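Much of our argument rests on the idea that a fold can be written as discrete symbols. The amino acid sequence and the backbone structure tokens for this protein are reproduced below:

___
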Amino acid sequence: MPEPQLALELLVHGVGGATPEEMLGDPRVRRITGDDTAACYRRTEDADAEARPDDYRGEPVREAYCWSNLTSGNSARALWLILVPFMVANLAHWMRPAAPQEHKAQRIYDVLVRILALTLTVLLAAAACEVALDLTAWQCAGTAACVDGKSWLGFLSPANSGWWSTPGRRLALASMLPLLVIGFLWWLSHRTWSAYESASPPPRDPGTSRDTPVDQRTVLSLHGFWYGRRLVARLRAAHTTAGVLTIAAALRIATAKLDRRAAEGSLLAVSGQMLTAALVLLAAATVVIVWRTARSEAAPDDRSDRLIVRALPYVSLGVLAVVTVHTAWARPGAHSSGPLPGAAAFGAIAVFQSVVVLALAVASWFLQRAAVGAARSALNGMGGPAVALLACAVGGVLSGGVAERFADWMDGDATPGQADAPIPGPPVLLSWQASVLPALLVVVAVVAVLAAVRILVVRRHVAADVPGLYDPRERPDEGRTLRIAGTIARAGLTDAAPVLVAAIAAVTLVLGAGAVAGAWLTGLAPGRATEGASPVVHAAAQTAEALGSWLMSAGVILLLTMGRRAYRDHSARRTIGILWDVGTFWPRAAHPFAPPCYAERAVPDLTWRMATWTERFDGRLVISGHSQGSVLAAAAVWQLDLVTRSRVALLTYGSPLERLYGRWFPAYFGPSVLAGLHREMDDWRNLWRFTDPIGGPIRLATEDGCTVDQGPLRDPLAFGRTLQDPLPAQILGHGDYQSDPAFDAVRAELVARLGPAMPLQRPRPAQGSSGRSSA
């Protein structure tokens, strides 16, 4: 008799996570490999299954890979939501249309996204400088009425005539706060890379028959795709430098006017000009590094950078130290009044970001024209520019919200910017940007109303077909029918997400341009700028300004609250977790301060497990992924060499591979890419339901006529009460696919198809080999 061949089913959970006990259906589990962050588990009785293959004839050994601790944990991780603009900008990098890699616009697209991401770091540093340097050290500490009642600012007040009371020294001291912010982001980026993204891919023997030539491979199959240490290090150095230089520039601009009053050729004037030149040179070097930095995915990029790149942040810190000393130097008669010079920088950043987004749209248009199989691409290939614009908008809201609320707190009962206020308040542009928020929310509300109407219309049409899916002998129940039809209608809203994104992006661009124009033309906040207009216009402007200011602040609080709840409340995480998990699935290719990429740990984990298990035990393997787990599973299969990939079958359920990733990331999950994956592995089956708001069909037209999609599955399984289901069956939607009888049938079919004879048998490694695959 032939030796029994073992089969393994590797389970990968989805959004929200699951315990190994839940995944394996047994309270007694044992960790097979991994650590407390991510690990593979089996039932205790299956821990030594490889030693007893006879006990598992016709039935796979079940093993669960749990990765939930990569994206969840203590509530302090909610602070990562403050980094949402960076995460969204990073997403724009991956949303390019599916044009050939050699297309000239590919390089332009990459550079534009990286430059846009750099402006977000500058915006963050400028917002920190606005709070610390302008509102605190320059405006409030220099005004007796504002300092009154704030004992912690007393030593900075000119009334005390202390050493720190001069404007330059106040600014020098306050610059430590934005520097701490940049330092914290640098530390967090370095620490999270070590914890999440430093897992190396399994070794491959170069030049063997297992590997396809580089120019014929799918990008996700390249050996270095999930390992970009050098790229993140280079971008981290550049963005840290940019943040430090922003602080130095704020200090330099604040004292430049005073230095110009000094005698020509004085020490302060000459040294100030030299420092300005040094800042310009360092800024140019930073832009060049960002411009020239590109992902190298053909092989793991773990080389060290050149000395000039590694030294750049330290050089910028040295220049900042000299600028700080220069700023703190005694200037007789110097005093602070009005806003800090340089407030126009916020407008310049907003205009520059708009220009970059428009250029990105042009590059996307050229790429979309050359794209292959782009029929279902979100926004006709304009998803990247739209998302990049939203990243800038969210960054503006967060920075403006913090500045507006801080100014309100410093002013007490007065309104910043008004004639009776003790301090001028934040830059006028931030007030204009706050004023357009209510209009943007009106657009969102209109789209929400249209979505609700769409649900009602679709529910009415679907309700007529629901009873036909079940036993005609069951009594019709109108309420039950409407609940099922309503679930299907709400699940369909996922496909309408591009409309919402397009509407918000278009309105944001128009309103943002109007805010910049209003601030530059009037130089006043909307309430004061409309004082001579009709009472209706003036009242509307004042209301929009006040309401928008609170909405900006509420946005910051809402992000923190949602993040905290999502990490502590399992149901809340399922609601918003898909957006967060999509955002942190991709490597940090554009912004190094974005939240860490969990896939750079999870994908190598799964690839190592599949490669080593099939190598050691010459067995069959089905990798079974739910929801986001199906994306991780597919990405891991792509990383296998061709021989191992041909020994693996893929089972996905509730999968967003085509519905979300295929539409929004067509260059990496488009139809031709998914068809190639199916062609190179043993087989693939996908289960889906109409009631699932996340998962959907894969829509593959394969050459051999095999059907990847199995569905739509009936949900609920029973319409009414039956002998088998005395209570009404639950509408499962996105969860519990294993309870459907179709799941066991499809899994058994995949295991049987793998069969005892492997399609591309590899020779066993010679005695004494290191365990690495041989040709």
